[in-house]
Specification:
Order of helices and strands: HHHHHHHHHHHH
Structural class: mainly alpha
Strand content: under 5%
Number of strands: 0
Helix content: 55-70%
Number of domains: 2
Distance between the termini: 34 Å
Shape: elongated
Radius of gyration: 21 Å
Largest sheet: none
Length: about 200
């Protein structure tokens, strides 16, 4: 969708649809209806209505929100499973190992996992959190803060969804400078009320 790459307003609105997954399940449909209304008054209505129709048929009607709502989950991605697979396959090295090599790799992996479980059980972290893990923890705190404000009626549903749009859908493989440039973030944007809530821990 070219409008996503070329216009910051349309990109923010599309990211808001991704942010629906962060809402409590009972508010997802209401949030979808509000976003649909925002699309109708958007200057990109013609380009975005096809997306709204797709989103409704796939992510509201076909795959129910109960399948993709991550509001109550600390794990919002499957990155931990992907990391496990990558580590195991880097241990195997060859694409089609023989049975003995495969069993040896399983034993080595079991040993590593057992060691990490013992460390975790004793209260030690098995690995130092990476920069991306710390960034994910900060985002989780921001999501929790926004949800608390929503539940205490200090923030409206649509404001919460639009704030979630700042937290989701960042381009993969782009540097920080390019992301800022692409999002057209200026100093005046950082003083807006929604970004001040997102920036604070």
């Amino acid at each position: 969708m070219k409008v996503y790459d070329t216009d910051a307003e349309a990109r923010h609105l599309l990211r808001a649809f991704m942010g629906l997954a962060l809402l409590p399940m009972n508010l997802i449909r209401d949030g979808f209806i509000m976003l649909k209304k925002k699309v109708k008054i958007s200057c990109y209505r013609n380009q975005l209505e096809a997306f709204v129709s797709y989103f409704k048929s796939e992510w509201i009607d076909h795959f129910k929100p109960s399948m993709w709502c991550v509001s109550n989950s600390r794990w919002r991605t499957n990155n931990f499973a992907e990391a496990q697979n990558r580590r195991f396959f880097s241990r195997v090295v060859q694409p089609h190992p023989n049975l003995w090599r495969f069993i040896q790799c399983l034993k080595e992996e079991e040993s590593v996992v057992s060691h990490r479980m013992v460390q975790t059980g004793l209260g030690f972290s098995s690995t130092r959190p990476s920069k991306s893990t710390r960034a994910a923890a900060r985002k989780t705190k921001q999501v929790e803060k926004l949800l608390n404000l929503l539940q205490s009626n200090k923030r409206s549903l649509i404001d919460t969804i639009m704030s979630f749009a700042y937290l989701v859908g960042e381009p993969v493989g782009h540097g920080r400078k390019e992301t800022k440039k692409k999002n057209n973030i200026s100093k005046s944007d950082s003083s807006s009320p929604s970004s001040s809530i997102i920036d604070s821990d």
